[in-house]
Amino acid sequence: MRLIGKGKSGKSDSGRAAVKKHAPATLRNREAIAAVLANELPANGTVLEVAAGSGEHACYFAARFPQLTWLPSDPDPEALLSIAAYREDYGGSNLDAPVRLDASAPDTWPAQRVDAVVCINMVHISPWEASVGLFEGAAKCLAQTAPLILYGPYFEETVETAPSNLDFDASLKARDPRWGIRQLSKVDQLGRENGLARSKRYEMPANNLTLIYRCT
After folding, report:
1. Do residues 196 and 214 touch, judged by C-beta distance below 8 A?
2. Which candidate, 79, 68, 182, 181, places its Cα nearest to that of 118?
3. pTM (two decimals)
4. Residues contacting 140, CB < 8 A, separation 6+
């Protein structure tokens, strides 16, 4: 008979596995994102991850950057359970318990100052109000010169759009008309309205970008 182990919470291995979500894209993009984070994250401090989803990125980046404290967040209760399950298996001391944060709801943002905000694949898979709240919330909680780091696909006026991104945009809008790949110029304008200027643009695999915004 195989014994079923239990973590610190008392939940069995099978119980944690049942609530874990898996996002296939995390395995494909995490190395490329980590390479950018290594250039842009501070030497120490707290990183708030907005829309952490399954929690797979949070565990991976916490392990890659042990000098930083990683604080994952998400508005979805099921995502929070998944993050907590991955965190329990991770076991490191630099990954905080997940917190509920709806980017578009100001009262859910943490009161504490953070040293970076990371948001992966949220801007195009959410209403525009979530992006507005993301920049407003980040501007309030980021320490001086701290970065807001975004990853995902964007449309650029001076760059020919890949057919795959056009197809992806159409599929997003079919699922929810409030979703869709955003025009980078509008995102930059949103940053300026909140005192955040784009300082870097990294081209990433699969026609994605990583964008860095910092307080002006």
Report:
1. yes
2. 68
3. 0.91
4. 109
